[in-house]
Amino acid sequence: MKAANVFFNFEITGESHTLDAYRNRGGYGALQKALCSLQPIDVQNEVTASGLRGRGGAGFPTGMKWSFVDKMSPVVYLCCNADEGEPGTFKDRWIFEHSPHQLIEGVLLAAYALQVRHAFIYIRGEFDLSWRRLKEALAEARSAGLMGEHILGSRFSCDIIAHRGGGAYVCGEESSLISSLEGFKGYPRNKPPFPAVKGLYQSPTVVNNVETLSTVPWIIAHGAAAYKEMGTEKNSGTRLFGISGHVRKPGLFERPVGYPMKKFIYEDAGGIEGGKKLKAVIPGGSSTPLLLPEEIENLTMDAESVQAAGSMLGSGGTIVIAEGTCMVRLLHVLTRFYAHESCGQCTPCREGTSWMDKIVARIAAGRGQSGDLDSLERITRGIMGNTVCALGDAAAMPVAGFLRKFRHEFEFFIEHGCSMYGGRLEI
Amino acid sequence: MSCLKDKFDRYVNDGGVPEGGLAPAEPVPAGVDLDAFDALRKTYPEQMASSLVLPLLQTMQEAKGHLTESDAVFVADYLGVPAMQAVEVLSWYTMLYSEPVGRQVIKVCRNIACSLLGAERLIAHLEHKLGIKAGETTADGRFTLMLVECLASCGTAPAMQVNDTYHECLTEEKIDRILEELP
Ligand SMILES: Cc1cc2nc3c(=O)[nH]c(=O)nc-3n(C[C@H](O)[C@H](O)[C@H](O)COP(=O)(O)O)c2cc1C
Ligand code: SF4
Ligand code: FES
To answer: Roughly how many angstroms between the first and final C-alpha of chain B, as a whole number?
Structure first.
C-alpha cells in the first residue's frame, strides 16, 4: 500500500492558505491541464477510473454520480456540501482553514466536467474562520482570472457562490440542502427523483462533499492510476480520518483507506486517556452503530470491512469511549441531538425521535420503567426505512446499537434508578 | 426604491395583509442598507431571487441583532417571494433570532465528543459564573448562553463560540480568561 498525501502535503504557516502559497505547491496546475488538454468527459472518466467515492457519508462513487447528469440540459448545478455537522466530524473545516484553494480548484474541475456555469458552496453558518478564508480565497481566485468569465483564457466560464447555512444539521442531507439553497426551510425531498435528475430549481444537480471535491485536483494532476494505488481494491485513495473522545491525542489524520483501526487509536491517537481500557468505538460519526473492542481487533477503515463488522465508515469520524463511561447518559446526548434536529416533516421521525429522547431521558433520570427498552426497540423499527430522508435511520441506529451491546447497563439503570458507572461521561 | 414603495402601498391599501396574520412590512427597517442588499443580490444568478431569503435575513440580523416578522416580510417583498416563505425561514433556522440576544452570544457544544471531555462541567461553570441558565440572557443584556450541537471541533473538544469566534480545548480557567477579555 503506497501512501502519498492528498491533503497533508505542505507545512501550515500563516500564509499557506493563500493563492500564492497554493500555486507554489503546484496548485491550479490540474485546472490548467484540464482546460488546455482535456475534454469535460475526460475529467469525468478520470474521476470514475480513480475509484473515488463520496466522503460525505454515503460513499457513492463520484464519477458515477456525475455520469447520471444529462449534460445536454440547459442548466446543470453543482453544490458543494460544506454543512459539516455530523457529530465526530471535523475534516471539511480543516480544508477551509488550511487549503481553501484546493476546494475551489476541485469545484472548478467538477464544474468543467459537468458544464456548470454556477456552482454553490453551502457552508455551515457557524463557521467563522472557514467562512472568511473561503471568501478571501474566492476573491483571490476571481482577481487572478481563475473564476468568472473565460477562466485562464479558455472558453469555460464559472462562478462560485458561497452560501451560508442557518444552523440546521438536516441541511447537510442533500435534498434538504437544495430546499435550503432555494430559500425555504430545509425540508428534505422524496427520492427519486434524485438531485442528479431534478435538483436545484428542478435542474440536474450534483451534490458533493468538500473532501470529495478537494480530492479531484490531485486525481487530475497525478492520474487515476496513482490514486488507485492507494487504499484498498474497492476503496481507493486516502481519507481525512478524525478521532475524538477519550484518546490521548485526538485530531485529524490523513491515512490510506483500509488503515487498521487499532493502529489508528493506539498509535496515531496515542491510545486511551489515562491508560484506561477501551469500551466502545463509534467508527464514522455519531449516526453509525458502535463497535466493541473485540469487533475492532482486525478492523480496517474501509467501507467493506466496517460494514462486515456491522457498522459504517460514514464521514470518517471515529469517537472513542473508554471503560467507565455511562452508556445510558451518553445515548441521551445523542437522542437529544436527533430529536432536536428532526425537521418534523414525516411522522415516524418527528414523533419517533422525540419519544426515544423522552424515554432515554427518563431512564437517565432514574425513572425508567419496565418495558421501556422494548418500546425503544419498537420505535427504532418503526422509524427505519419509513422516512423521507436518512436522518430517521441515523437517529434510530445508535439507539438500536447501544441497546444491543449495552442492554445490561440500561436494565441496571431502570432497576436501580441509578447508573452502573456513576453517570460519568468524562473519565 | 420606487418599486419598493409601490409594493408597500399595495400591501397596505389592498389589504394584502391577511387578517390577524403577518405584520405589514415597514418601508425600510432601521439599520438596513439597501445597497448591501442590491450588491448581494447581484452575486446570485438573476433567476434565483428566492435563494436570497436566508442571506438577506442574515445580513439584516448582523445589523439589527435580532429579526421580527416584519423584517422577514420586508425581505420577501424586496425579492418578490411569498411573505410566508421568509417568515417560515425566520422561525425555522436556529441561527436566526426572533428574540433579542445579549451583546455576547456564547454557544457551548453539548454533543458527544465535548460531553466525553467535560461539556456538562463547563456548562455548569458558565451558568454559575454568568448567573443564568442555558437559554437565558443576563439582566444587563451582556451575555446570552446557548447550548448547541456539534461545532465540528470534536478533535479540539470541548468547544464553544463567542459571537461566532471559536474557542477550543476549553477548561474552567480558559473560560474565565475568555470572559474577562470580552468587551
Ligand atoms: C442527516 C444527514 C446529514 C448529512 N450531513 C452531511 C454533511 O454535513 N456533509 C456532507 O457532505 N454530507 C452530508 N450528508 C450526506 C449527503 O446527503 C450526501 O450524501 C453527500 O453530501 C454527497 O456527497 P458525496 O457523494 O461527495 O459524499 C448527510 C446526510 C444526512 C442523511
Ligand atoms: S426523516 Fe426526519 S429529518 Fe428527514 S425528512 Fe423526515 S422528519 Fe425530516
Ligand atoms: S461534539 Fe462538540 S464539537 Fe463536535
So the answer is: 38
pLDDT of residue B183: 87
Which tens digit of pLDDT belongs to each residue from A228-274? Answer: 999 999 999 999 999 999 999 999 999 999 999 999 999 999 999 99
User: What ligand is nearest to the CA atom of residue A387?
Assistant: 2
Instruction: Tell me the CA–centroid distance for residue A315 and ligand 1, in Å.
Output: 8
Sheet with strand A118-123: strands edge to edge: A159-164, A118-123, A77-82, A205-209
Task: Indicate the SS3 state at residue A78.
Answer: strand
Q: What percent of chain A has pLDDT over 90?
A: 98
In the DSSP assignment, the letter for residue A369 is -
What's the CA gap between A291 and A278, in Å, rounded?
11
State the smallest CA–CA distance between residue A133 and chain B in angstroms: 14
Mention every residue, 6+ apart, whose C-beta is less than 8 A from residue B136. B144, B145
Pocket test for ligand 1, best of A86, A200, A219 (most atoms within 8 A of CB): A86
Residues in chain A: 427
- Average pLDDT for chain A: 97
Interface of A with B in 94-123 (CB under 8 A): 118
Task: Give the nearest chain B residue to A87 (CA atoms).
Answer: B150
Cell output for A310: 456491522
The answer to whether residues A331 and A397 touch, using CB atoms and an 8 Å cutoff, is no
Q: Would you place residue B15 in the very low, low, confident or very high pLDDT band (cuts 50, 70, 90)?
A: very low
Name the grid cell of A228. 488507485
Beta-carbon neighbour count of residue A146 at 10 Å? 24
Round to whole Å and give the CA distance between A125 and A54: 22
Q: What are B68-83's pLDDT values in tens digits?
A: 999 999 999 999 999 9
Which cell numbers hold the place of A102?
484546493
Tell me the C-alpha to C-alpha distance, in Å, between residue B1 and each of A43, B7, B38, B40. Answer: 46, 10, 11, 16
Rounded-to-integer distance, Cα A127 and Cα B164, Å: 7
The strand pairing partners of A61, in sequence order, are A53
